[in-house]
TrEMBL record:
One of its GO terms (cellular component) is cytoplasm. GO terms for biological process: proteolysis. This is Leucyl aminopeptidase family protein. It comes from the Bacteria.
Length: 469
């Protein structure tokens, strides 16, 4: 993984080139203070500061300077510098206006590349360092970049190399690094104790056998928070087989697990005073003679029975058993993250995670954090009137209904039935994929809502401050 700590350094007076940030409102004033040579060059390039992301290079003796157009130099977003990060000449750079702040994240992530499968990987982009006058904030920004890159790399990795065993290895590595407790339930124990996780994954090849992965970290006296991530490493749809177009990106169906691992890493890195419980039901939803069938009735860990209306609605089944396990430890908060429904994407597109919350105070905290962190979320309703869509004629509930309406809502309502009563709960239905590149955000796997989640947790731990540095 890219060595992000080498790309963002504290300002100790090192020799550096200057990166000027301008916008359309202040460009003319800034331009008046520039040498005539610079004014002529910018005029020749038709650079006027209006189009955010445009960059111009200017001579400065033995060095070079650069000017970058941004929307507002006084309020840098995480992605303001991303357009410049991989276009500037190598070397040390210093912002003319001072610290990079939140924009340091985009500076780092614009230089990350997933090249595991390239026959000729790109060269390391060492020596491109943005100096900042806030050394205390660098650690938090680097951790956020590392967490985002972790999601990208896990999601981008093909299913042949990112099955349940690989997810287990990633979680075990994190546990070893943090000195956390770690356990895996598989085989006969999984079938007995987590029957819906086993049912979904039992048709997979032996090397991709289903399992429940658990990690626990932190002082047991601290508030307990459960983070559950959907780890469907590949989803054929099961016997309700997806078409080729629907199966093409299903390596990303473990995007919820990738987010859960990254959020766990962030919480541990920030040393938040929590007792953290990570749970990843890791399966491959395959086709075989022993695959679970439409019409089967499954008995969940909670004892509730579920009629399988559609084997392609498998994510909620594995999450239900994992959420039930989380609830047995009386958590103060349950968070689940999942690439759960296409309906969420139809409603909100690829950028906005559909966010379901059963507690108004928690919802306010989370949405406020999303705004503060420039990490957007969009709240969706847990509409009780749609509970009837999950009715079964022979079991306690069906895993989906025959209605084409409100698919993301009914999926959330299904999960809600397994959350302990009166326990605050957040469900994020994330896409975990960027279909088109933007500065600092290449096409492919991507993290969404991580920084908002971390800031919300930090605020709940430290009501007087939201700092996670």
């Amino acid at each position: 993984m890219t060595r992000f700590a080498d790309l963002l350094q504290p300002d100790r007076g090192q020799p550096a080139s200057t990166l000027h940030l301008v916008d359309s409102a202040g460009f003319d004033t800034w331009l008046k203070g520039r040498p005539a040579e610079h004014r002529a060059l910018l005029e020749a390039q038709r650079f006027d500061g209006k189009a955010a992301g445009t960059l111009a290079l200017l001579p400065a003796g033995e060095r070079v300077e650069a000017v970058l157009a941004v929307a507002d130099p006084a309020r840098l977003t995480p992605w303001c510098l991303a357009a410049a990060a991989d276009r500037l000449p190598a070397g040390n750079w210093r912002l003319s206006g001072g610290r990079a702040g939140a924009a340091g994240l985009g500076w780092l992530l614009a230089q990350h590349r997933f090249d595991r499968y390239r026959s000729k990987p790109e060269e390391e982009r060492g020596g491109r360092v943005l100096l900042t006058d806030q050394p205390a904030a660098i650690g938090a920004i680097v951790r956020e970049a590392e967490a985002t890159a972790l999601v990208r790399e896990l999601v981008n990795t093909p299913a042949a190399d990112m099955g349940p065993g690989a997810l287990e290895a990633a979680a075990r590595s994190l546990a070893d690094e943090a000195g956390a407790e770690f356990r895996v339930t598989a085989g006969d124990s999984l079938e007995t104790d987590y029957p819906m996780i086993h049912a979904v994954g039992r048709a997979a090849a032996r090397e991709h056998a289903p399992r429940l992965i658990e990690l626990e970290w932190g002082d047991a006296r601290n508030p307990r928070v459960a983070i559950v991530g959907k780890g469907v490493c590949f989803d054929t749809g099961g016997l309700d087989l997806k078409p080729a177009s629907g199966m093409r990106l299903m390596k990303k169906d473990m995007g919820g697990a990738a987010h859960a691992l990254a959020l766990t890493r962030l919480v541990i890195g920030a040393r938040l005073p929590l007792r953290l419980h990570l749970l990843i039901p890791a399966v491959e939803n395959s086709v075989g003679g022993n695959a679970f069938r439409p019409g089967d009735v499954l008995i969940s860990r909670a004892g509730k029975t579920v009629e399988v209306d559609n084997t392609d609605a498998e994510g909620r089944l594995v999450l239900a058993d994992a959420i039930t396990r989380a609830g047995e430890e009386a958590p103060a908060l349950v968070i689940d993250l999942a690439t759960l429904t296409g309906a969420a994407r139809v409603a909100l597109g690829p950028d906005l995670p559909a966010t379901f919350v059963n507690d108004e105070e928690l919802a306010s905290q989370l949405l406020a954090a999303a705004g503060e962190q420039d990490d957007p979320l969009w709240r969706m309703p847990l509409w009780d009137g749609y509970d009837d869509m999950l009715k079964s004629d022979i079991a306690d509930m069906a895993n989906s209904g025959d209605s084409p309406f409100a698919g993301s809502v009914t999926a959330a309502l299904f999960l809600r039935r397994f959350v302990p009563e009166a326990t605050p709960w957040v469900h994020l239905d994330v896409f975990a994929w960027r279909p088109a590149a933007k500065p600092g955000r290449p096409k492919g796997g991507d993290a969404m809502g991580l920084r908002a989640m971390l800031a919300m947790l930090a605020k709940r731990c430290h009501p007087q401050t939201s700092s996670v540095a």
